[in-house]
Design goal:
By secondary structure, this protein is α/β, with parallel strands linked by helices. The chain has three domains: 174 residues, Jelly Rolls (Sandwich), CATH 2.60.120.260; 73 residues, Immunoglobulin-like (Sandwich); 282 residues, Alpha-Beta Barrel (TIM Barrel). The protein contains eight helices and 34 strands. The longest helix is centred in the last third of the chain and has 22 residues.
Length: 568
């Protein structure tokens, strides 16, 4: 099924936008588009290509032009030739991959230049010393999907229900840039509105000059500095103001932006723990967002498609998206930053086979287990646990600068959960400025600032947490409605079926007016409805999988979820 953007898909130049808005240079060579590919049953390099694949779309999806499943015993190869524009090389030439699922090795002109393990975070290799007038890239990818030492999110070899088809290979933008020999390797931006300052670290060595709002600030790279921000407006979904700035370090120059905002958990005037935004209670009215597309699956068919999803959520009356079991490209978070959408960011799950008594039964029984019982949670592998924490650190570091992200969620429903205190400490070693939901749904270990619950089959009734934490309803709803012509023909999945749009509207109205909105007044700090769009055979979205149809009009949904018609 094609989305509206897939119907006008540009195979020669998909996703041409600059991929990293918070560290932007004028050097940019996009390598998205047609590559040659081959699939082998051994690590031996292929003698010839099997055909053409459109990067950055996984071979399993329609927009790749391949639609071929890559199995655990396959080696997936990509081949691409390129020439650098004249005067492109300023000292170093870097090749960037937004994300490759799961293990990638890269050669340039026959020389191995780097490798990376983990399917959700970017990596960079340097090409400087191996470049020629005409160059060839070779990328080999292994994707075993369900191996228990790597994060996989909702990907399954045998999919159905809440589990989706596995994706393989390159699925985010591939691009080349050139930088000086001494260059800015990254930034860390921490807003401190309580002291009217931006805390800034430039990863690099040299004299730095920041230009912000017509003023210049000089400081050394590699050290934490504070830049004054008095008079700057606070960011919120209602006022998503961003402040652009330029930064130079010797010969290197980058463009970036930041926002001033603070988040946390504090008690309101009635001594009820609430989620705070800029020092005031702020109810997170959210949607679960899986980030799948009917034609591109893991990869959106166009940049505008990501914008459409965010704008639809806002038009429906929601102020938050919980990015579920997936990490998006930088541009998705950039659009949330500029459009004003709070984000809860999940760490994609990993681990071995999940036991029904651990991941499903607690939805009804409410029973929690000690997450140091590794075998129970499919976490026997010490190497797998270490790899998860490594990938978690990479995710938090990669996304740290985006002001839209206000919550980290390391574990969901016991999927590969282990030592959640350690996971929280791992996040806090990088980021102490955001709230953390240690265990979304169940298997609460009794610590942290929030208590997180999922409720699908019973009425939700707010109950204050005995430990004084803010209470989150981090998943609920899941009402399914099939829209003929815009759904897979297989058996549908949802937590409650609705026969038509009128039934869906009435069900949502009852749900919000009798359960969610009263709970909000009593003390509920956040609510996350399942979900933004249908995915595969899971038909509980408020939009169809192909984004061609809304199941209810925007004003109708908005009135229901915000309570504007609660008294009618």
């Amino acid at each position: 099924m094609l989305t509206p953007w897939g119907e006008h898909f540009d195979r020669a130049s998909p996703l041409p936008e600059y991929p990293r808005p918070q560290l932007r240079r004028d050097s940019f060579l996009n390598l998205n588009g047609p590559w040659q590919y081959a699939v082998t049953k051994s690590p031996r390099r292929p003698d010839r290509a099997d055909g053409t694949i459109i990067v950055p779309y996984s071979p399993e999806c329609e927009l790749s032009g391949v639609e071929r499943r890559i199995g655990p015993d396959d080696w997936l190869w990509y081949i691409r030739s390129f020439e650098l524009p004249e005067d492109f090389n300023r000292g170093r030439v870097l090749l960037h991959f937004g994300a490759v699922d799961q293990i990638a090795t890269v050669w340039c002109n026959g020389v191995e230049v780097g490798s990376h393990t983990g399917g959700y975070t970017p990596f960079t290799v340097e090409l400087t010393d191996v470049l020629r007038a005409k160059n060839q890239l070779l990328v080999c990818v292994r994707d075993q999907t369900e191996r228990n030492d790597l994060a996989r999110g909702k990907q399954r070899l045998e999919h159905g229900g809440i589990w989706y088809p596995g994706q393989s290979g390159i699925w985010q933008t591939v691009w080349i840039e050139s930088v000086p020999r001494n260059y800015i390797r990254g930034l860390k931006l921490t807003p401190k509105p309580e002291v009217n300052a931006l805390e800034l670290v430039v990863y690099g060595s040299g004299r730095c000059v920041m230009e912000l709002e017509g003023k210049k600030y000089a400081f050394p790279g590699g050290k934490t500095v504070r830049v004054p921000t008095a008079g700057l407006e606070l960011w919120s979904p209602e006022n998503p103001v961003l402040y652009p700035f330029t930064l130079t370090m010797e010969e290197d120059r980058v463009e970036s932006y930041f926002a001033m905002r603070s988040v946390g958990v504090e008690k309101d005037e009635n001594c009820i723990p609430r989620l705070m935004l800029n020092g005031k209670p702020y109810f997170h009215n959210g949607l679960l967002d899986q980030g799948y597309w009917s034609d591109g699956q893991y990869t959106p068919p166009a940049d505008d498609a990501m914008v459409y999803d965010i704008e639809c959520a806002k038009a429906m009356g929601f102020n938050m998206l919980r990015k579920h079991m997936k990490v998006e490209s930088d541009r998705w978070y950039y659009h949330c930053d500029r459009l004003g959408m709070l984000v809860w960011q999940d760490m994609p799950a990993g681990g071995g086979e999940y036991k029904a008594a651990v991941v499903n039964a607690p939805l009804v029984t409410k029973q929690s287990y000690d997450d140091s019982r590794y075998a129970l949670f499919g976490r026997d592998s010490a190497e797998g646990r270490a790899q998860f924490l490594t990938e978690l650190k990479r995710m938090v570091s990669t996304l740290y600068n985006h002001p839209s992200i206000v919550m980290w969620v390391p574990f969901n429903e016991g999927w590969g959960q282990f030592d959640s205190r350690t996971a929280v400490e791992t996040i806090e070693s990088i980021d102490r400025s955001r709230t953390i939901d240690p265990a979304s749904g169940w298997h609460d270990q009794g610590f942290g600032q929030v208590k997180s619950e999922h409720v699908y089959f019973t009425k939700y009734r707010y109950k204050a947490d005995k430990r004084g934490r803010a209470v989150l309803l981090s998943e609920f709803g899941g009402y399914a409605l099939r829209t003929e012509g815009h759904a897979r023909p297989e058996k549908a999945f949802g937590y409650k079926s609705c026969k038509d749009a009128d039934a869906l509207e009435k069900a949502l109205y009852r749900l919000y007016t009798t359960e969610i909105l009263p709970a909000k007044e009593q003390g509920l700090a956040a609510a996350v409805y399942t979900q933004l769009s249908d995915v595969e055979t899971e038909l509980n979205g408020l939009m169809t999988y192909d984004r061609q149809e809304l199941k209810l009009p925007f004003p109708t949904i908005r009135k229901i979820v915000t309570g504007e018609n609660a008294e009618e």
